[in-house]
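TL;DR need structure tokens for one chain.
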Amino acid sequence: LADVTRIARVPATAFWPPPKVASAMLKLQVRRERFPAPAILGRWVALVQGGFRHRRKTLHWNLRALLSADELARLERMPSWDLSLRPETLPPAHWLEIAELLE
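>> reply
TL;DR here they are.
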């Protein structure tokens, strides 16, 4: 949805207590042409939020709370969707495809 550019590194000494991870300041340039159509935007947001609600659970586990039994069964029947995967393994474009399919 956006082009990302790192504009500065932030040293751990900039924080108190200093973290054990590196930090950076990022610039996000929103690309409106990559956003879902307004008609499915709400569904897409709900799918992504719900899909990552329990990050270590499978897509099937997370989506069953969001979708009807019929919608979930329709996704399971499609050969391109493996609902036994974890949400972080799904490319961003696939989340939009799911939203479009369910609309």
